[in-house]
Amino acid sequence: MKKNILSFVLLILSSNFALFSCTTADAPPNYNKTKTETPDPELVLRSIHDNALIGSPAYAQLRYLCKDIGPRLSGSDNAQKAVEYMQRVLDSMNLDSVYLQPVMVPHWERGEKEFCQVIGNENEKINQKVLDITALGGSVGTNGKLKTQIVAVNSLSDLENLSKKEAKKYKGKIIFVTQPMDARFINTGSAYGGCSSIRVFGVNTAAKVGAKAFLMRSLTLKNDNHPHTGIMIYEKGGKKIPAAALSTNSANYLEKILNKAQKENTSIEMELQLNCEILPDVLSYNVIGELRGREKPEEIITVGGHLDSWDLGEGAHDDGTGCLQSVEVLRLIQKIETKPKRTIRCVLFMSEENGASGAKEYARVAKEKNENHIAALESDSGGFTPRGFRVQDSARLAIIQKWQPLFKPYNLHKVEFGFGGVDINPLGASGTLLIGLEPDSQRYFDHHHAATDVFENVHEREFLLGAAAMASLTYMMAEYGIE
Amino acid sequence: MKKNILSFVLLILSSNFALFSCTTADAPPNYNKTKTETPDPELVLRSIHDNALIGSPAYAQLRYLCKDIGPRLSGSDNAQKAVEYMQRVLDSMNLDSVYLQPVMVPHWERGEKEFCQVIGNENEKINQKVLDITALGGSVGTNGKLKTQIVAVNSLSDLENLSKKEAKKYKGKIIFVTQPMDARFINTGSAYGGCSSIRVFGVNTAAKVGAKAFLMRSLTLKNDNHPHTGIMIYEKGGKKIPAAALSTNSANYLEKILNKAQKENTSIEMELQLNCEILPDVLSYNVIGELRGREKPEEIITVGGHLDSWDLGEGAHDDGTGCLQSVEVLRLIQKIETKPKRTIRCVLFMSEENGASGAKEYARVAKEKNENHIAALESDSGGFTPRGFRVQDSARLAIIQKWQPLFKPYNLHKVEFGFGGVDINPLGASGTLLIGLEPDSQRYFDHHHAATDVFENVHEREFLLGAAAMASLTYMMAEYGIE
Questions:
Q1: CB–CB of A374/A481 below 8 Å?
Q2: CA A409, CA A63: separation in Å to the nearest integer?
Q3: Residue A32, Cβ density class (10 Å: 0-12 exposed, 13-18 middle, ≥19 buried)
Q4: I need a surface site. Which of A371, B61, B417, B450 has the fewest CB within 10 A?
């Protein structure tokens, strides 16, 4: 095969036809299964990738989770269906153990679709435009229609830094924080990181100046009509006012007419209705499947994603892909003849989006049982082409980096310090090495928490390469440890 | 900003909410334009990326090329419209020179849409299924409806290695080479490279055994209903038989029923009609725009893509993105206060798909004028997130690799030996260093030469990051040379 490719490259170099060439002769060798206890890791990683790219059931499983079950908001019937489906999938895999770990989770419901309309002002009646809006997760409703003036502020820090006198202007009104994500960041996660506190905590700042409601621009770099939801958190003892996000197109429009109104010294009113409500907590589950280690079963490596999702799309990239990739890690490791030296546990966490109670419960039980979690690997940045791993410990980063030559043929070039993930994070307190899969970030926030986070936007090979990357690192840690 | 991100990271580490974090604090510094002759390259590259990611006209220009002009088959009216549009774009940019370079190009027309139907056999009439098919570029037509038996062969080499006796079985029939691209390659270009000779030369092997027509499976890793076209070349003096590609779904179906028929010792007939024809060559143009070097204007760096495309889609990834990225390189370089030390020339090549006559003419004229082309950079692998560069000279690879620390913040990790590109290739004979932009390859062959190669499948940021990567490398070569 290598020879064929070489002669083909020579062919193109000598002619000028519309052909496309390979960078490297990455021909798949025939990996022969071996009973040797420690087979050549280079061959094992090649085998993992071959088995991911040909004949994997994971993409069809993702389709079922997204299309047949759909969105899986914490506490919902669909979340329960997802628990049962994933348990069935794990049960069918001949693992050493499959079980559900009970956990109480928040239950917030959106209710009927939101309504938001600009209704102009006394002088001008032309701006009667319906805007695309979504309640933020955890928000209270408006209790019927809220009709009041809408005012803009450039950023959360501007709002925080208002003098008492200025703050009066915002009392009784709807506050709209116009701040967009900064497109100049190369990694879109950094642009999100610079703005997500607006969504999580902005509502409290608005409540403190006496606003009736809080609006923000959706956290995405794409201009379109899809609003993006996501968690917000009320401060203890603070006033709970409704909070929502506008699609970027609606936000651009609103910003424009508010600027115009300000110049003309007029005002604009808005009608806003959110029908969401906070219900009592519900019993739900983390779904867990385990391959016990052949030599050091007490040393555990957790791989996981979160099974719950927001309700607007199908929770495809966030985080159906992470769940099915984690299950696929087990399948790919099972394909290696020898059992892993250490225990590999796949955990599908419940309620990441609504406060990560599943993650906290998993870590609590692990500590209670005095389990030895040496490492945890999470996929919750989308099912895009993997580029490497984020290792949340600069002191132990080199342990993972020493395997980079093995990862390079799979274009996993980036092994750097970074955040592991929300669901594995509580394990960190006991010294577990936390690692996040780092996929290409360009398209993630197009879909994140929006109606477009659907199965069709997940590319099969990109998704499977992510699973193979996770399986490769998991195999290395399970076989060679992380000392 | 950096401080904000840091405190935000600390925030997530201490709480467990549904947030997403950054890998590296890649905060954009405020790049101050400077009149220093050699500004800090780190700041220049940051500035190039800032200007690409905010306020670039390139994506709107790509939209015009794709949606308002559309497919631009060599020799077609649309190709001429594209020449005129791109000349207007370059004319508006205040360059040192903009001109058209005349070149005669092939003119092949598809004619009316092809037809292909399986018509069962004497015993069985149930298989009357219409298949998705496209003529290969350069093929002759069937001259009305061709009706004959269809027979499968597993690979081109199987067909080549037939004994004389076996070959008789194929005489007078339509030969279908079933070979698929090998999904196990990580870089899809390698999988394509292993199969593209089937498309380019397979027809000749089929003609030699006396086949009436040649069919192949579309060169893509995706199973869908979109057939993929592409060039084929008749051997001099050989018989010209019609050649076409089936969509992968149609190919899978046909392979299945042919296997069944073989087991049952029956045969299957097919009706095939291709209406294409080869017309006389047409006068067309390479479109060229140039920024003259401030110190070494005689040293030229060519950046380019090809302006022609296949007719099934809009030539978005192949290669509208390469063209507009190359134009964007000039714009981004112009944004740097100092003019480039060496000359940068953007070349939009004509007729890459149909034999690369534009590329050959450009190299011929360069040689005739005794021009000194030190390097050439091509983008013809799609407008996806850039991952690095392919350098077509292992001896000079280190010259480019020494700049890798500057490229790393932009996730350009891969600078390896590889093919530069079809259009710059003829320059190689004079010692020009040939370099290809290497984007992520996973989605390229989903769209390559198919009806889905449309503007909507190009992601704005991915495309612009490619342009910024090209501008970064071009700037370094123009400023520091390649010695």
A1: yes
A2: 29
A3: exposed
A4: B417
- CATH architecture classification, B115-275: 3-Layer(bba) Sandwich (3.50)
- What is the distance in angstroms between the Cα of B128 and the nearest Cα belonging to chain A? 30
**Where do the domains of chain A lie?**
40-106+280-480, 115-275
CATH superfamily of A40-106+280-480: Zn peptidases (3.40.630.10)
Closest partner residue to B16 (CB to CB) among A355, A381, A410 is A355
Q: Which of A153-167, A367-381, B302-316 has the lowest mean pLDDT?
A: A153-167
| Chain B residue nearest residue A357, CA to CA | B16
Q: pTM of the entire structure? A: 0.94
Instruction: Specify the DSSP class assigned to residue A68.
Output: I
- SS3 call for B153: strand
The three-state (H, E, C) secondary structure of A366-419, written as one string: HHHCCCEEEEEEECCCCCCCEEEEEECCCCCHHHHHCCHHHHHHHCCCEEEECC
What's the rounded Cα separation, in Å, for the pair B387 and B31? 24
**Spelled out in words, what is the top-level CATH class assigned to the domain B35-106+280-480?**
alpha beta
Question: Averaged over A258-280, what is the pLDDT?
Answer: 94
Between the alpha carbon of residue B387 and those of residues A189, B324, B411, B441, the distances in Å are 18, 18, 6, 9
* B415 vs A380: CA distance, rounded Å: 29
Report the distance separating Cα B30 and Cα B39, nearest Å: 14
**Can you tell me the distance from the alpha carbon of B245 to that of B131, in angstroms, rounded to the nearest whole number?**
10
> In the predicted model, is pLDDT for residue B10 greater than 80?
no
| Residues B358-401 pLDDT 10s | 999 999 999 999 999 999 999 999 999 999 999 999 999 999 99
pLDDT value of position B16 = 36
Of B99, B52, B89, B51, give the one whose Cα is nearest residue B68.
B89
Least confident stretch, A353-362, A420-429, B162-171, B377-386: B162-171
